[in-house]
Design goal:
32% of the residues lie in helices and 31% in strands. By secondary structure, it is of the alpha/beta class. The strands form four sheets. Strands 1, 4, 5, 6, 7, 8, 10 and 12 form an eight-stranded mixed sheet that branches. A hairpin with a 4-residue loop joins strand 2 and strand 3.
Length: 212
């Protein structure tokens, strides 16, 4: 589903809305939170990859030979540490032969600017499709820096996948990376003065890993 924001695709589905509600509820326990993130990541993986290129292969059923298909694109998942790790398994459920890289960025709580502390990704091919994973698109600072790193490493086709996005974050990515499409399962109202998404769901990393 397209929204009024350029390059932002909101996945509007009854099951998505139910799981987003679970994530928002402060009473939701860690294991339920994780399972909801995984299901939402399953849906994101399917929606994002509807247009994947395929190549025909020969396959033999128990009865006869027929034509089958396999992916003709390399998919590389790159979670932003640490919260992005919560989305990886959901994507691997759907596309099990993905390669996975990692980007470590943390936000300075005073300046709200991202600080890089780790970066390692697989060698990219010309046909590599890179999917950057981060549950929250808040100020957009960390996402924008991660996209810059990926482009420096040769990524030409990048998609950003999140669970919850703010208007401010979408606008920043559109301004600094107009070639990157964003997919999300919720579009929230705004950021507060500390850069947290409202109504939001709190700190996705803390709630995923039980480090509240």
């Amino acid at each position: 589903m397209k929204t009024s924001f350029k390059n932002f695709n909101l996945i509007d589905h009854p099951l998505v809305k139910c799981d987003i509600t679970l994530l928002r509820d402060k009473k939701t326990q860690t294991e339920i939170f994780r399972s909801a993130v995984r299901r939402l990541s399953n849906i994101l993986a399917i929606e994002i990859n509807k247009g994947l290129k395929l190549k025909e292969i020969n396959v033999e059923t128990p009865l006869e030979k027929t034509t089958g298909y396999k992916l003709d694109e390399e998919i590389v998942l790159v979670p932003v540490l640490r919260a992005g790790l919560s989305m990886v398994n959901g994507f691997l459920d759907v596309i099990p032969d993905c390669n996975v890289g990692h980007i470590g960025l943390q936000r300075n709580e005073e300046t709200l600017l991202p600080i890089e502390y780790y970066f390692k990704i697989p060698k990219l091919k010309n046909n590599s499709k890179v999917i950057l994973l981060d549950p929250m698109l808040a100020t957009g600072g960390s996402a924008s820096e991660a996209l810059k790193y990926l482009k420096k490493k040769g990524a030409k086709k990048i998609i950003f996948a999140c669970l919850v996005a703010s208007p401010e974050g979408i606008k920043k990515i559109n301004k600094e990376h107009p070639d990157v499409k964003i997919f999300g399962t919720a579009l929230d109202r705004e950021l507060d003065n500390k850069g947290y998404i409202l109504p939001g769901l709190g700190d996705a990393g803390d709630r995923t890993f039980g480090t509240l």
